[in-house]
Amino acid sequence: MLQLICLPCVLLIRQTLLKHKSKKPLLLLLRLLLLLLLLLPLPLPLPLPLPLPLPLPLPLPRPLPLPLPLPLPVLLLLLLLIVLLLLPLLLPLLLPLLLPLPLPLPLPLLLLLLIVLLLLLLLLLLLLLLLLLLLLLIRLLILLLLLLLLTATASATATDSATATATAAAATAAACCYCYY
């Protein structure tokens, strides 16, 4: 559904990349960021399970699948990106309405402030992206720790079984030696 909503944005990105004559690098950067965000929520393929050397007495619980619905920060990020992409289109329409009003600041200074504000919003978007990547990394580390714990439990069970077998064999050998003498 998200891909259907953002299909016009993808077409705009493609059109911009095909032209290569864009005089607005900030708009091109924002469009490329949106394309990156569209590729981000695609589900990752699940890794193949590692074969265990010994059969376990209890069946292993299956790992929980990653949730497919997008979290709220990603949706807010996409909404903010769409607004930022539409802002250059709406600015020429809004500028004539603001010109007749007395401005406390000159127009170039206002445009400079607008560009600084857009750059700060872009920085905020990048920080949110880093936060989402950090959350994904934490989730992957938790899955790896669970896999390591399951492997350690399996090897501990195998070691306990081997120790019990060796103890029983030693006790049997001691009993045989005792009976022999």
Structure overview:
The protein has about 180 residues and is mostly helical. The protein has a domain at about 120-150. Helices cover about 75% and strands about 0% of the residues. Helix 2 (about 5-20) crosses helix 3 (about 25-40) and helix 3 (about 25-40) packs antiparallel against helix 4 (about 70-100). The chain is rod-shaped. About 5% of the residues are buried. The mean pLDDT is about 70.
Summarize the structure.
The chain is mostly helical.
Features:
181 residues; mainly alpha; rod-shaped
Shape: rod-shaped
Number of helical elements: 5
Q: What is the chain-wise order of helices and strands? A: HHHHH
Main sheet record: none
The proportion of strand residues reads under 5%
* Distance linking N and C termini: 83 Å
Rounded mean pLDDT is 69
Helical percent range?
over 70%
Which spans of ≥5 residues are poorly predicted at pLDDT below 50?
A: none
**Total DSSP E strands:** 0
Rg estimate, integer Å: 31 Å
Structural class: mainly alpha
Organism: Dreissena polymorpha
Protein name: ABC transmembrane type-1 domain-containing protein
Keywords: Membrane, Transmembrane, Transmembrane helix
Transmembrane segments: 28-50, 70-95, 107-129, 136-156
